[in-house]
Amino acid sequence: MFFHPAYLIVIPGILLMFWAQNRVKGTYRRYAQVRSKLGMTGAQTARAILQKMNITGVKVEPVAGELTDHYDPRAKAVRLSQGIYDSDSLAAAAIAAHECGHVLQDYRGYAFMNFRAALAPAANIGSQIGPMLVIAGVFLAATGLSTIGIILFAAVIAFHLITLPVEFDASRRALKLINQLGILQGEENEGAKAVLQAAAWTYVATAFYAVLQLIYFFLLSRNR
Ligand SMILES: [Zn+2]
Questions:
Q1: How many domains does the chain have?
Q2: Which of 73, 115, 196, 208 lies 20 to 30 Å from 101, alpha-carbon distance?
Q3: Which pTM does this prediction carry?
Q4: What's the CA-to-centroid distance between 71 and ligand 1, angstroms?
């Protein structure tokens, strides 16, 4: 196993990710137990929002797992996890509405979403090959090789940073919609907000960790 003291720099990132993961799970479990007054399930919430926005042709379907909810722009499908799809909790309304926020971004041509999708392949390659090139460059004393690795890994950072406005915007749209449509009322909106804010922190933590990794790779490559 390869270890260098500069690796210590990524520890705050790991801690923040751990904290955010715990927080999102805790907040989710708490508000998954609070049923909304109106009693609409996640699936009903998603369908009501899509209908209200005059969006036809987007399916709302269940998907296995916990917190696996997502919108698939290619399949035009909002996929809601079992705990969300059939649940009439505040968490279910919040998460279902958030995924519909991504549908709206897709249908209204939200620039950051397209940019993020365009960056995805480069980020994928960068996350796999970037670190290997940096470490190979260090062992071979080839600074150029390490620099290429760092540039490739920079695509990963760009991807995670561009994810932030995409996710914040989807949540902002979600909270507005569930309030406007009366799916949640009064204080219930605060519960939905807490769930979506906790989820937002996981994206912040991931981006922060990626930035620290880049700094680590840079320090490693400059080490001789
Ligand atoms: Zn999202």
A1: 1
A2: 208
A3: 0.91
A4: 8
